[in-house]
Write a structure and sequence with these properties.
Layout (H helix, E strand, L loop, with lengths): L5 H7 L5 E5 L9 H10 L3 E5 L13 H14 L3 E5 L2 E4 L2 E7 L5 H18 L4 E3 L13 H12 L2 E5 H11 L3 H7 L3 E7 L2 E3 L2 E3 L8 H14 L4 E4 L7 H20 L3
Parallel strand pairs: 1-2, 2-3, 3-6, 6-7, 7-8, 8-11
Antiparallel strand pairs: 4-5, 9-10
Helix pairs in contact: 4-5, 5-7, 7-8, 8-9
Length: about 260
């Protein structure tokens, strides 16, 4: 749910299955944004999706950030709370990006410890999302195995971004289907659009979901079953009706998955 669509949610009361918001946009103790979120929460399940904790950073978790997230979660009672598998801070400086980790044993131990700490401080389970990558980093653990082991060690769930798998497959040659096969504990799926630039695919969340990503999504549903699915669209926002139409495409595939015999 983006601010440009607040009025449509309040006036037209559309009926998506659920909505997701960026947690940090609602850290204030009041104001119009939080008012709208509380109104929407009366009609819809809500997922809080964080972009600023930097779970892979080596410095301590930001206490004020965690405190604000806990206050928001206690107030909204979200269905899901999630964050990204990335780092974003160093030596007291914060970088406004989701920077990827090397998939090493050292990084795994660090992130598992921080995820466990976050869950303890929030008093709830969180989901961790895979990110897009544009340069290969050293590491001995395949991405899918890294995520699966993180879930086992920390008890967290996973948020699988299927578009990011496709982007990384194109950019780095990491086979998306092999990453899916290695995973379990997937409790949410993200879909999004991407764009091409200088031979790379960029995860820009500003277009319709590509056909190749829909096919990969169908493979993920075959592996994990009917998992709650969100279509992200953050730039060049279209009218809400366009987003609802994209969500309907995911809903149709989820219905097919529900109807399929076990």
């Amino acid at each position: 749910m983006r601010a440009a669509h607040y009025r449509a949610f309040l006036d037209a009361r559309p009926a998506p299955g659920w909505v997701e918001v960026h947690s940090e946009n609602y850290f204030g103790g009041g104001g119009y944004d939080l008012h709208v979120l509380e109104q929407v929460r009366r009609d819809h399940a809500v997922s809080l999706h964080g972009v600023g904790l930097g779970l892979g950073s080596t410095q301590a978790l930001c206490s004020s950030h965690v405190s604000n997230l806990k206050k928001l979660a206690d107030r909204i009672e979200p269905h899901l709370v999630s964050e990204h598998l990335c780092w974003s801070a160093l030596d007291g400086r914060h970088f406004n990006d989701l920077l990827p980790l090397p998939y090493t044993g050292e990084a795994l131990a660090l992130v598992a410890s921080r995820v466990s700490e976050l869950q303890e401080r929030l008093g709830r389970r969180v989901l961790v999302e895979n990110v897009s990558m544009y340069v290969a980093l050293p590491g001995e653990i395949p991405e899918g195995e890294f995520l699966a082991e993180l879930a086992r060690r920390s008890g967290c769930g996973l948020l699988l971004d299927v578009n990011n798998l496709h982007v990384n497959q194109h950019n780095l040659g990491t086979p998306a289907l092999l990453q899916i096969a290695a995973l379990d504990a997937v409790e949410e799926i993200h879909l999004a659009g991407h764009t091409a630039r200088d031979g790379l695919l960029i995860d820009h969340h500003g277009a319709r979901v590509a056909d190749a990503v829909w096919r990969l999504y169908e493979a993920a549903l075959a592996r994990f079953g009917p998992v709650p699915t969100l279509v992200e669209w953050d730039t060049d926002l279209p009218p809400l009706e366009v987003l609802l139409a994209e969500a309907a495409k995911a809903a149709a595939r989820l219905e097919d998955c529900h109807a399929r015999p076990a």
